[in-house]
Structure formats: C-alpha cells, structure tokens
C-alpha cells in the first residue's frame, strides 16, 4: 500500500508587493519536486501574479483570500477573520501536514491545536534594533516563536538584539534567499528588463516601513517616475540595439503611457507576471525597485543590476545598500537624478564569473525543506 503524500499549504502575504510570494513559491516548487502535494493561498498582488500566464513546472491548487483593498498599516491577514475562519478549516479540509506562513507573522499560533506543523518565512530586518522596530518586533518575535520551524529570508543580524528567547535560534531550519530554478544558461543578449515591484497597494500609514513621515501616494508617483526614467536611460544607453521588457505593477492606464515612450519593436510594457522569469537570466541589464523578492531573484544572475528604493522606505534602502556593497555589478540609485549614471555603469562590458550558479537560491530552498522534513 502506498504511503499518503505529505500535504503542504503555503499562505503567502500578497501585498504591498511580492516580497513573500516569490520565496514562498520557490519553496513550494522545492516541495513539489520532492513529491509533496502543494496548495497555495494568497490574495491581492499575490493572487494576480500566481494566476498569470507562465510556466514554472509545478502543480498546485490556488486559493484567493478575500481582503479589504484599503488598510491602515498591517498588510497581512487577520488572525481571526482569515486565520480561524478560513485558513484553519482549509488546513483540516486538505489534511495539511505543513503550513508555510510567508510574511504572515501573526498566524504562528494557528496550528497549535492541530497535527499540522507551522513554518514561518520572515524578513530578519524586523530583528534590527531600531526605534521603529522596538514595539512591533518584540510582539512579532514572540509570535514567530510559536511556530515549529523558522526560515529567515536573509542572514540574521549580528547580535540579534531584539531576540529575547533562545527558542528562536533552535527553530531556524535554513538561512538565505530562495528563488525558482532556471535551465536558461544561454549567453547574455541585448534585452533590458525593467521591473518596479510586485504592487503598489501601500498602507495608509507607513510607520511600519519608515522612520520618517512618508506619503504612500507619493510612493506611487515615485514608482512611475523611476520606471519611466529607467526606460528612457536604458533605450539611450544601448543605442537602438536593445529590447526593453518592462513588467510593471502600475495598472493599465500608466502602463499604456509608458508604452508610448518607444515603438513596440524596442519596448514592451506588460503587467507583472511569471513571464518575467523567461528573460531574467539572459538580460544584459535588470533594473527594479529594491524589494526582498527582486533582490533574491537577481543575486546570481550574470547581467548588470540597478536598484532603487522608495523615499523614506527604511527596509528597501537597507536592502539596496547591502546589495550594492555585496555585489560587484550592482548599483543603488539613491535618486532619479543618479539613475542614468547607475545604468551606464551597470551596462559596461565586464568579465562574467563562470562560477556563478543561477540556481543557488533554489538549492537553498531544497536544503531548508529537507531540514524540515527530517524533523517532521
């Protein structure tokens, strides 16, 4: 008699961008490749992205969770309305053995009365001892401790001053970035990929993202300006020899406006979709907003990289600065006036490191998942 398949549910935070959907999807792919039955529940940008066209060679059942479009601060799900009323019954319905909470930091205690083990994917930026972090981080870390396993999406901060329990470290099953696998190892071509994040469903209050007063409506405007200027400078820099592929979260009206910047033969503007991965590893240059998901995706691509951050967005600025310091061909444009210089620098011919492994992020996913399975 065949043993029952392990069943895994991935509950992935779907806004304001795709920072938790992309690494969650990579882990879901690793689970599928190890013979696990995969279910994914998400919402907003996450659902639109995962239901878009494109193939990543994985079978899963997708669930769309209903959320209010406007929200004050916390972008994730409600522990009771979504957790107790929707996700818990879903765990029981599909008889889930593992539940991965990607960015849903409030959900850890949900599985405590079930046979399902919980795994939290989290951004360790919440552990950094800043004024902004003090109050929410203590609360969130206590909730993280209620999970069975933990998967930080980057290296844990040195000293980790906001961890107040030794149980946190004992539950960490991996530490790194997670990306989808690629078989595309062709030579670099003249394609430039421009992206601007997974979404613009920003909160009404930006206090959890910014130590300064920031206007989320200005963030939408900035996203458009950076995208527009990235396209213009890329077209100029490659002197008519390149094709610019834009994956934009700005909506059809603004995307149509961007499309008018050049003829279709040189510029193609599309909504954010899985098709993005078709071009990522052979593009000569990739330009994008410095979100967690994007940085994970491009750490080991061979083309040049330019990132920008929303003004006053502490997390994105920190990610972009660290990325520039750790990657020789990455440039952090700190303003739109600096964008042209960064694009020109990243576009210069350079030696490609033959040891670059574009599948390091996926190997991380497989290793972390194996660690968890050995403990279940």
UniProtKB/TrEMBL annotation:
It comes from the Bacteria. This is Glycosyl transferase family 28 C-terminal domain-containing protein. It comes from Saccharospirillum salsuginis.
